[in-house]
Write a structure and sequence with these properties.
single chain, 209 residues, alpha+beta, two-stranded antiparallel sheet, 4 helices, 29% helix, globular
């Protein structure tokens, strides 16, 4: 039987950066047969959209990473959202993630949740709102369907992202030489963020048909 994840907030530290709100939030998400997420980084845009990176320090440590990787993921995701939504159409009221037509498709909390998880054993499973996701498919984008019009956006990233890139490099060597992990991470987040924006854009675009 699948159960809903339970979340208890422990502490929030918010800092105003001009027109933006950056928040570091510590919380515990008890997920049956899955990892325990105790930390997150959050960024709020002026349009009300939030990006939240959920991670476990234990899982990151097992992959040779620190919470700095989670911060890098947040930075890359923020940049990706800004790059994509600056184009006309992806910023049009009635079609966008920030300002959708709620008669068709929208994310009720306007939050893009990014989870960093392991790829082995229970750590490879994310159980959210009775939806099961596998980090073995990561990096990837998916949604949690809450109703005919409500969809929560979810992006999954593997905690062993560096190893993932090295394996990818062996399969698809770059003519530009050794890959840069920071550049690849930003490219990955732009790719997955485009899936997020296009999902809601296309759902709302269909209303015209």
């Amino acid at each position: 039987m699948m159960k809903h994840a339970s979340v208890s907030c422990l502490a929030v530290l918010s800092i105003f950066l001009g027109a933006f709100l950056f928040a570091h939030e510590a919380f515990s998400a008890a997920i049956p047969n899955g990892p325990i997420y105790k930390d997150s980084f959050e960024y709020r845009f002026m349009d009300g959209v939030k990006i939240k990176v959920h991670y476990s320090r234990q899982i990151l440590k097992q992959s040779g990473e620190t919470n700095r990787f989670a911060r890098d993921v947040l930075d890359a995701a923020v940049e990706a959202y800004q790059i994509i939504t600056q184009f006309q159409g992806f910023s049009s009221i009635g079609y966008t993630f920030a300002y959708p037509d709620k008669s068709y498709a929208y994310d009720p909390d306007r939050t893009i949740d990014i989870y960093i998880g392991g790829v082995l054993g229970d750590e490879a499973v994310l159980n959210q709102a009775s939806h099961i996701f596998s980090f073995k498919d990561a990096p990837c984008f998916d949604t949690i369907k809450l109703s005919d019009t409500q969809y929560e956006a979810v992006i999954l990233l593997p905690s062993n992202y560096r190893e993932f890139i090295k394996n990818w490099e062996r399969i698809n060597p770059s003519s530009l030489g050794v890959r840069n992990i920071s550049v690849d991470l930003r490219g990955t987040l732009i790719h997955e963020m485009l899936h997020v924006i296009l999902f809601y854009y296309n759902k709302n675009l269909n209303k015209d048909n």
